[in-house]
Amino acid sequence: MGVISTTGYGRRAGVAVAAAVCGLLAAAGTPAFATTDTPAGRNPAGSAAAAAAAPRAREIPETPEIPVTPAHPIAPAQVPVGISRLAQGPGHAIAITIDDGPDPRWTPQVLKILKDNNVKATFCMIGTSARANPGLVRDVAAAGHRLCDHSVDHDVTMDHKPVAYQRQQILDGKAMIEEAAPGVTVDYYRAPGGAFTPDSRAVAAASGMRPLGWSVDPKDWSRPGLPAIVSTLEGKLPPQPTVLFHDGGGDRSETVAALAQYLPWLTAHGYTFTFPARTAP
Q1: Tens digits of per-residue pLDDT, 116-139?
Q2: Which range, of 61-65, 123-127, 129-133, 197-201, averages the lowest pLDDT?
Q3: Is 246 an active-site residue?
Q4: Which of 68, 87, 162, 193 might form a disulfide with 93, Cβ 3.0–4.6 angstroms?
Q5: Are 97 and 124 in contact (CB under 8 A)?
Q6: How many domains does the chain have?
Q7: Which is the catalytic residue, given 37, 99, 153, 199?
Q8: Other Cβ atoms closer than 10 A to 56
Q9: Active-site choice (150, 154, 246, 247)
């Protein structure tokens, strides 16, 4: 799908966010809008020579954790630019994340399984899907799950596009989720395919969204079969894992079956369900 026109919200927010982004990058000593992150397990585009010639970005230091109370909400400038891959809480805390929806067939099934197992998850929504299915966005929020911006239309090459394009994809995606369910908070931004850049992370953080990665990927999106998915999920888990699932982008019957089997297994093995870390580390 092509890029939609920038919304009025996105244009207004973009001016303020651009200024905040420049401030974040300048404070970190990072050139504004110049470099690309390479997510784990993903090959960067372009030739090896071009990659070797490109300057290596310095990692932007994270902001220390700030106490959060109703009287002390998290301001955008207090959201770290570093990619969150840990569940908040102790080592046996686990964060379930659901990508690429909402989808009218699969999202309701995922919501039912989560409810049956008393699990709260984080839904990373594509803006165009949120606009097409506003009732599902409201259902997800009403059930106590958290929301994550997954860009306007899931362009996995956006890390090699101009920064203005990246900003539009991030801010318009967030706006489309907010328009679908007025009053909701979008707590995270997950780049399509994990294709973050220092610039996209700074744009997200400046607008109050923590960049969100993952630490366990059962590759359910590729439909490898239920045994393969479960084998990955029930293997050795890292401490405070963030697990990646999908409720959109195709046939998600294997994902639904895997969640129905995996969530009770986690409970039986002493895991507690939480959300991805938003403030630190």
Answers
A1: 999 999 999 999 999 999 999 999
A2: 61-65
A3: yes
A4: 87
A5: yes
A6: 1
A7: 99
A8: 6
A9: 246
